[in-house]
C-alpha cells in the first residue's frame, strides 16, 4: 500500500474534513488514487503529539483530493485524532518516539515455556501491540517471532510487556529491548524502507 501524508493547517480543518457518521475523511492532496485502492495515511495537524498512521480506502474523488473511508481496525487511532483535535489534550502515553505502522503480521510469542500464535496489530522500531485473548502481566519478558510480509526468516525480538488491554479487543503492548539484535536491525531496515519508498506492505 502507498503511504500518503495529510497535513491539515489546523485541528478545526481536520474536524471539518472528517465525517464521524460515515468514518470518511476528505484528503486535500495531489496524490491520485483509484476508487477501492487501499492506502496508509499519515495525519498531522498542530498540537498533535505524533503523526499517527491509519489504513484507509479511497471511496470517492472530490475537488482537490480524495474521500477516504477509514478502516474499522484503527478505531482507537481515529478516536485519538478526534479527541486531540477537539480538546487539544493528549495522553502522555501517546507520545511515542517511533512511528507505528498498522499491520496484521503473524506472530508467535513466548512467555516462560508457553508459546502462542497470534498477530501484531501495530509495529514500530520500538515496540508493537499483540492481540491476545488472555494478555500476560505487565513487566513480563516476552519473546516474539514476527513473520515479515516477504516471508523471509522471522524477526526474532524480545521485550517487556509495557501495558495490557482487556475487553473486546484485548492484547498487550511490548517495548522491545536488545536494539542491536539481528531481528531489531532487520525490523528498522524494513520500516525505513517503507517510509523512504512510500510503499507499505505490512
Write a brief structural summary.
The protein is α+β, with helices and mostly antiparallel strands and 202 residues long.
Overall radius of gyration: 17 Å
By secondary-structure content and strand pairing, the structural class works out as alpha+beta
What is the chains' assembly state? single chain
**Can you tell me the residue ranges where pLDDT is under 50 for at least 5 consecutive residues?**
92-96
For the terminal residues, how far apart are their CA atoms? 8 Å
List keywords for this structure.
Thrombin, subunit H, 3 helices, 2 domains, 202 residues, alpha+beta
Describe this structure as you would to a colleague:
With about 200 residues, the chain is of the alpha+beta class. The protein has 2 domains: about 1-95, Beta Barrel (Thrombin, subunit H); about 100-195, Beta Barrel (Thrombin, subunit H), CATH 2.40.10. Helices cover about 20% and strands about 40% of the residues. It is built from 3 helices and 12 strands; from the N terminus they run E-H-E-E-E-E-E-H-E-E-E-E-E-E-H. Strand 11 and strand 12 (about 170-175) form a beta hairpin. Helix 1 packs across helix 2. The protein is globular and about 55 Å long. The protein starts with a strand and ends in a 5-residue tail after the last helix.
Amino acid at each position: 500500500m502507498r503511504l500518503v501524508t495529510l497535513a491539515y493547517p489546523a485541528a478545526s480543518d481536520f474536524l471539518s474534513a472528517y465525517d464521524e457518521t460515515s468514518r470518511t475523511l476528505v484528503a486535500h492532496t495531489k496524490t491520485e488514487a483509484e476508487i477501492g485502492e487501499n492506502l496508509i495515511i499519515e495525519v498531522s495537524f498542530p498540537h498533535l503529539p505524533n503523526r499517527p498512521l491509519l489504513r484507509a480506502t479511497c471511496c470517492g474523488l472530490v475537488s482537490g483530493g480524495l474521500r477516504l473511508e477509514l478502516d474499522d481496525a484503527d478505531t482507537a487511532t481515529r478516536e485519538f485524532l478526534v479527541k486531540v483535535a477537539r480538546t487539544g489534550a493528549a495522553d502522555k502515553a501517546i507520545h511515542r518516539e517511533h512511528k507505528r505502522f498498522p499491520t496484521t503480521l503473524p506472530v508467535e510469542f513466548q512467555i516462560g515455556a508457553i508459546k502462542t500464535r497470534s498477530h501484531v496489530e501495530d509495529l514500530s522500531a520500538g515496540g508493537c501491540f499483540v492481540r491476545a485473548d488472555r494478555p500476560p502481566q505487565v513487566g513480563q519478558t516476552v519473546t516474539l517471532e514476527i513473520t515479515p510480509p516477504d516471508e523471509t526468516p522471522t524477526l526474532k525480538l524480545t521485550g517487556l510487556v509495557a501495558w495490557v488491554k482487556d475487553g473486546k479487543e484485548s492484547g498487550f503492548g511490548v517495548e522491545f529491548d536488545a536494539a542491536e539484535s539481528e531481528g531489531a536491525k532487520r525490523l528498522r531496515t524494513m520500516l525505513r524502507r517503507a517510509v523512504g519508498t512510500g510503499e507499505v506492505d505490512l
